[in-house]
Specification:
The chain is built from five helices and twelve strands. The strands form two sheets. Strands 1-2-3-7-6-5-4 form a seven-stranded mixed β-sheet, sandwiched between helices. A five-stranded antiparallel β-sheet has the order 11-10-9-8-12, with no helix packed on it. A hairpin with a 3-residue loop joins strand 4 and strand 5. Helix 2 crosses helix 4, helix 2 crosses helix 5 and helix 4 packs across helix 5.
Length: 248
């Protein structure tokens, strides 16, 4: 029996699906409750960035999770979601994609999907997690500076897919990889590394606001941190930050 998407609350417009899902989770909504909107007026991505969410042009989905995990293990849920989205795009919609650590989905070098995970911690334990997924589906172009960095499923595949169709394809895979994450995180790590060109041997620069590290990626730790080996052969475990490719 599927855990996720058993109850889907649909809206024409919301400020943010994550905000509503977080409110519902705080009120005791059960695991698997999903919030789906045709439009977000204040959609957001990682690090407070705005997520462009025009009416009917993308999947704007947030799901309440209540995993039995330590807060330090929550990154595995982010990786599992990225794997589920990447598989859906590749297997169901025949679109070649790459996962940029930890959870941005790119196609043709541009961003196709973003994932935002927000957690509530009570007494050093996860109370709930809200998993937000935004997928650009039907856009033919993007406003302003997004034109250079964003793409959509329509642009990449020529196929027009509705948010409900994509959600139906995604939820089953998301449920499967969520279950895997809870019982065997190593399988998530291994599969993520197969799907991402960033996992091994990639020259990167990582900035976290306080420092910048340059080096070569050497896979992920068992908790999902990115290992970067510097020129001095030191290895750093990156748990947060903005990653950029650099020329070697």
């Amino acid at each position: 029996m599927s855990r996720l998407g058993g109850a889907i609350l649909r809206f024409d417009s919301l400020p943010s699906t994550n905000d509503l899902a977080r409110d519902l989770a705080a009120q005791g909504a059960p695991e698997g409750t999903a919030v789906l909107a045709r439009e977000q007026t204040r959609g957001r991505g990682r690090q407070g960035r705005v997520w462009s969410s025009p009416m009917g042009e993308g999947l704007y989905l947030s799901i309440i999770l209540r995993p039995v995990l330590a807060p330090a293990q929550a990154t595995i849920l982010t990786l599992a979601a990225a794997v589920a989205v990447a598989e859906t795009l590749t297997l169901d919609y025949h679109t070649a994609v790459d996962i940029k650590w930890p959870n941005d989905i790119h196609a043709g070098g541009k961003k196709l999907c973003g994932i935002l995970v927000e957690s509530s911690i009570e007494k050093s334990k996860l109370d709930y997690v809200v998993l937000g997924i935004g997928v650009n589906l039907g856009q033919r172009d993007f406003p302003g500076e997004l034109q250079a960095v964003a793409t959509s499923l329509l642009i990449e595949s020529g196929e027009r897919v509705t948010p409900d169709e994509f959600a139906e394809s995604l939820l089953g895979r998301l449920d499967w990889w969520y279950r895997v994450a809870l019982r065997e995180s190593a399988e998530i790590i291994a599969h993520w590394q197969k799907l991402s060109s960033y996992a091994e041997g990639c020259a990167v620069r990582v900035e976290d606001g306080e420092r910048a590290i340059e080096g070569i990626t050497r896979g992920l730790t068992p908790t999902g941190a990115l290992i970067v080996e510097t020129a001095s052969d030191q290895r750093s475990e990156i748990v947060a930050g903005e990653i950029r490719l650099r020329k070697t």
